[in-house]
Each structure stands twice: as C-alpha cells, then as structure tokens.
C-alpha cells in the first residue's frame, strides 16, 4: 500500500534509469498496481480519504507517457461500476480479462483487458465465490447441507459449459474448493482430499493423514502440478494425489505464506523465496533468500547475511558511493523482506523491506 504525500517512481528494467513518476495527492492511497502487457500501461487501483477509503478507483496510464512525465494522458477505468466495499476488481493476465463485482448492484462483470470493453455480466444469485482458470470460470454457490452447486462458464463469452452438484459430508465445513483446468479440488474439515475431473466425473481421494489443509496454493500450469504451503513448508503434488517433491532447505519466513515473498520462474523449474535463515538463527528478524529446484526439492543457491562473497556498496563520509543517502549492510537488506522479484533476463533479484527500501542482488 502506498500512502499519501509521496511520489511513486518507475525504473526501467533495461536501463535501471528512472523513467517517470506519479505524484500522489494527500487524499489518495494506492491499493495495488498492475502492469498491463497487452497495451504497455500501468493500472493503479486507489482509495481516497474523502470517501472514507471505501471505494476503489482505477486509472490506466501508458508507460510511454510515464516516461515523458505526461501523466494526465491517462484515463479512469470502470467509472460506470460501483466498486464500493465489498466490491472488487481483479485483473486476469492469463485470460486477458478483468472481473469486477458491484455489491450495490449484485452483479459481476467481465471486461476485455486489451481495450477495457464490457463483455458480459453475471448476476450475483447466491454466488459465494468465483475461481478463474485458463479458459474457464468456476462459480461456487451457497452450499446446502448435503451438496454445493457449481457452474463452469467459458471465460470468453460467459456461456455455461457445465452445472453440477458436488456431494458434501453434512455438518462439516468446507476448507477449500479450487479449480485447475478440468480438475476440481475439494477438502472438508477432517475429511479426505478429493480431486474430481469435471469432464469425466472421475473422483480421486487422498487420505486426510497424507494431505492436510494448506494455507495457500500455486498452480504450475506448465507442469500440470500444484504447490501447497503449510506451516512454512512447501510441497509439490500431481493431480493423481501423489506427493511429487518435498523441499530439503526451504523453510518459509511467513507462517501464512505471503506470496509477495515467493517467485516461480517462467519455466516453472525454480522457486525463489524469503526463508528462515539458520546462519542467523539468534536474530529473529534476518532471513535468507533460497533458490530450489521444484522437481527435486534441492536448494541450489542461497543468499545469507554471513556469506563472505556478498558485499554492499562502501560508505563515503557516512554515505554510499552511489547517489543515495540511504545504504544498507547485507544483514539489514535481508531484514523483514516484504516483497521479492527475480528478473530472469538480467539474473537479478529485487527485494523490498518494511523500511520502504528496494535492494538489487546481482552477480
């Protein structure tokens, strides 16, 4: 979240030069940023103090105009939609769509991410949640005691592809329902994990002692696998319910799996995460950055505070030799990391911490 009274700068990944900035008004708080690769623009989602921070406002600004510092060339998005809480907007980069929800009107709407044209709407008639996968949307309706109604729609035109009822154990809460292509993943409290093929109706069950409810998922579309996160540990599963990989040295920093601190490479062969560090176990605030192979679980590289090969720019008269009055030691740079990104083209890792500093790790 970016608060008021500051300027937001953008840095070119190619030149590392500042290409422009957005001046935030004292009234504005940016909730999220989204880079739209379809039209090379930056979308900001903001709330405002004058509205008691209750309504989302979206704006798109072409990156070319950010470079020229012509920020007024941008324009607002979805002005016709009431995005007052608990309304929301979700950007789907995989399908090139935008999903909005107006709680006031009780309607979901889908827009084209390329040109923001309205495509179709979905009435909120007891829809509890919507899950988006490549090519399809799963609508999860309010459950009955013995089943949950589910509907699968085409993401392109909203046409119904299938409607069915998934049977449930009475009086047991649903831990999660997830959708991955034609696979439906369902888990109820203290019950077996179920993998249902919605096209063939084939059902696979995994014993509750083998698969316990994770706190988060990441689906690996290229490999037809999925990652689970539970109690700081990561595991890889296939859709037959088999455990594929356990990681030997990848204990995550956060209990609740903050995906801001996790990066999966585009080939989906490596996972890079902010982890607990054995090297500085006595210091509860400094972690490490671990890189592991997804298919083998082996840790192949690690950035730690006591690595003698690492060095920060030396200070000169209390400052770094670089043009900045802000400097960090390696342990300070690894303290309370809140965001992590890996530039695969430049082989550089970017981390941000709770002090608002961004660090670049490069060899």
Can you describe this structure?
This protein has 363 residues and is mainly beta. The protein has a domain at 239-363. Helix content is 2%, strand content 48%. It contains 2 helices and 31 strands. It has helices at residues 63-67, 330-333, and strands spanning 7-11, 18-23, 28-36, 41-48, 57-62, 75-77, 88-92, 97-102, 107-112, 118-123, 127-133, 136-141, 147-154, 160-167, 174-180, 183-188, 193-197, 203-206, 216-220, 225-230, 233-238, 243-246, 262-264, 270-276, 287-293, 299-303, 315-316, 319-320, 337-343, 348-353, 358-362. A 4-stranded antiparallel beta sheet has the order 3-4-5-6. The longest helix has 5 residues, at 63-67. The radius of gyration is 23 Å and the shape is globular. The chain starts with 6 loop residues before the first strand and ends with a strand. Pfam families: DUF7899. This is Transducin/WD40 repeat-like superfamily protein. It comes from Zea mays (Maize).
């Amino acid at each position: 979240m970016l608060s008021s009274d500051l300027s937001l700068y953008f840095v070119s990944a190619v030149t590392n030069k500042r290409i422009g900035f957005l001046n935030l008004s004292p009234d504005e708080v940016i909730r999220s940023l989204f880079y739209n690769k379809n039209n090379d623009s930056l979308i900001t989602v903001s709330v405002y103090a004058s509205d008691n921070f209750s309504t989302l406002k979206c704006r798109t600004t072409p990156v070319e105009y950010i470079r020229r510092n012509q920020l007024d060339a941008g324009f607002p998005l979805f002005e016709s939609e009431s995005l007052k809480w608990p309304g929301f907007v979700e950007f789907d980069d995989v399908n090139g769509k935008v999903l909005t929800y107006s709680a006031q009107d009780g309607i979901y709407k889908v827009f084209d991410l390329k040109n923001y044209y309205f495509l179709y709407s979905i009435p909120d008639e007891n829809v509890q949640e919507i899950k988006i996968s490549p090519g399809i949307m799963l609508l999860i309706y309010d459950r009955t005691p013995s089943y949950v109604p589910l509907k699968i729609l085409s993401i392109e035109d909203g046409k119904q592809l299938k409607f069915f009822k998934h049977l449930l154990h009475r009086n047991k809460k649903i831990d999660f329902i997830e959708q991955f292509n034609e696979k439906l993943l369902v888990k109820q409290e203290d019950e077996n994990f179920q993998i249902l093929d919605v096209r063939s109706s084939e059902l696979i069950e995994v014993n509750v002692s083998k698969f316990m409810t994770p706190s988060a998922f990441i689906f690996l579309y290229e490999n037809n696998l999925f990652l689970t996160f539970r109690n700081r540990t990561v595991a890889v599963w296939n859709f037959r319910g088999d455990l594929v990989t356990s990681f030997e040295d990848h204990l995550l920093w956060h209990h609740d799996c903050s995906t801001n601190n996790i990066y999966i490479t585009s080939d989906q062969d490596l996972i890079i995460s902010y982890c607990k560090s054995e090297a500085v176990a006595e210091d509860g605030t400094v972690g490490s950055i671990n890189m592991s192979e997804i298919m083998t679980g082996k840790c192949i590289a690690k950035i730690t505070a006591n690595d003698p090969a690492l060095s920060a720019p030396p200070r000169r008269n209390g400052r770094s030799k670089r043009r900045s009055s802000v400097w960090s030691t390696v342990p300070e740079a690894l303290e309370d990391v809140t965001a992590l990104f890996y530039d695969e083209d430049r082989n550089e890792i970017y981390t941000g911490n709770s002090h608002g500093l961004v660090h670049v790790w490069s060899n």
